């Protein structure tokens, strides 16, 4: 496919649909210089965005954490997402909403006088990890750590928080891996670059407590699915060496959906029945 800047289609920008190639911003946009940007990644299945309103509500929350207000209501964002899908003739698609501080009177760290913009785009996007859904993804262990909540707004889906994700994923791919796993500032297992993580041992599930990283909507959905099946879920701090004793592992995220993991560093996992069952059940749920 063509680059993301050179495609046919429509993008919703600040209240109206415009041609894809015309969706541009000024070079002195504040977000480009100071990362004053938040976003959501969503998937539409059969024309319906899964947990759409919760994504829109989280976008507003994230903006508030970065001290700006999106000039469109949740209802308006919901209508815009539907408009984008229809304008591009998409039913199964990835949807990206981005809000940011643009170019204006301020061009230093402060930007209170600059306008806030909102864009919504959608495109076809297949499996995030390719054939890993069958074989199990291979993860590197990042040299970076998820920071303390005292240092950044860890529960916002903010663009600046993904800087170490990009560098970690590049390093992982250079080693032939699909992704990288972060530890947090205390040394506990945290998450992958764009997905939460789950482990299985003796028929029970263990997942890191999201006290310094995003509590993903897919993560929340999968925990509910497990509890509905009477499977015990332990949300807790997990030490890296505990991975040696876990039998199965999978990642969750809007892009990742539910993807089994076969290896993290030197630790290996079976792509087992529970991982496959949850992956298949999630696929059925989002398309129901």
List the helices and strands and how they pair.
Layout: E1 10-13, E2 16-19, H1 30-34, E3 37-45, E4 48-49, H2 52-65, H3 74-87, E5 93-101, E6 116-123, H4 132-135, E7 137-146, H5 163-174, E8 179-184, E9 189-192, E10 196-201, E11 204-208, H6 217-228, E12 233-236, E13 248-253, E14 257-264, E15 267-268, H7 273-286
Parallel strand pairs: 7-8, 7-14, 11-12
Antiparallel strand pairs: 1-2, 1-6, 3-4, 3-5, 5-6, 8-9, 10-11, 10-13, 13-14, 14-15
Helix pairs in contact: 2-3
Give a structural overview:
- This protein is an alpha+beta fold.
- It has 2 domains: 10-123, 2-Layer Sandwich (D-amino Acid Aminotransferase, Chain A, domain 1), CATH 3.30.470; 132-286, D-amino Acid Aminotransferase, subunit A, domain 2 (D-amino Acid Aminotransferase, Chain A, domain 2), CATH 3.20.10.10.
- It contains 7 helices and 15 strands.
- It has helices spanning 30-34, 52-65, 74-87, 132-135, 163-174, 217-228, 273-286; strands at 10-13, 16-19, 37-45, 48-49, 93-101, 116-123, 137-146, 179-184, 189-192, 196-201, 204-208, 233-236, 248-253, 257-264, 267-268.
- The strands form 2 sheets. Strands 7, 8, 9, 10, 11, 12, 13, 14 and 15 form a 9-stranded mixed sheet that branches. A 6-stranded antiparallel sheet has the order 2-1-6-5-3-4.
- α2 crosses α3.
């Amino acid at each position: 496919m063509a680059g993301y800047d050179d495609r046919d289609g429509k993008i919703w920008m600040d209240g109206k649909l415009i041609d894809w190639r015309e969706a541009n911003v000024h070079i002195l946009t504040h977000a480009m210089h100071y990362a004053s940007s938040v976003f959501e990644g969503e998937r539409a299945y059969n024309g319906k965005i899964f947990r759409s309103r919760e994504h829109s509500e989280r976008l507003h929350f994230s903006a508030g954490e970065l001290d700006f207000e999106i000039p469109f209501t949740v209802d308006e964002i919901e209508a815009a997402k539907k408009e984008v899908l229809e304008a591009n003739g998409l039913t199964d698609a990835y949807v990206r909403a981005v809000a940011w501080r643009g170019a204006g009177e301020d061009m230093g760290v402060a930007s209170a006088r600059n306008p806030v913009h909102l864009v919504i785009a959608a495109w076809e996007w297949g499996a995030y990890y390719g054939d890993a859904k069958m074989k199990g993804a291979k993860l590197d262990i990042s040299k970076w750590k998820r920071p303390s909540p005292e240092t950044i707004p860890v529960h916002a889906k903010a663009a600046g928080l993904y800087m170490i994700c990009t560098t970690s994923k590049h390093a992982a791919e250079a080693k032939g891996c699909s992704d990288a796993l972060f530890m947090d500032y205390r040394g506990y297992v945290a998450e992958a670059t764009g997905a939460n993580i789950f482990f299985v041992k003796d028929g029970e599930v263990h997942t890191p407590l999201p006290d310094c990283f995003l509590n993903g909507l897919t993560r929340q959905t999968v925990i509910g699915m497990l509890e509905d099946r009477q499977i015990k879920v332990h949300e807790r701090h997990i030490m890296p060496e505990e991975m040696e004793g876990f039998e199965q592992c999978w990642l969750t995220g809007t892009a990742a959906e539910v993807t089994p993991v076969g290896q993290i560093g030197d630790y290996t996992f079976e792509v087992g029945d529970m991982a496959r069952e949850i992956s298949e059940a999630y696929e059925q749920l989002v398309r129901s």
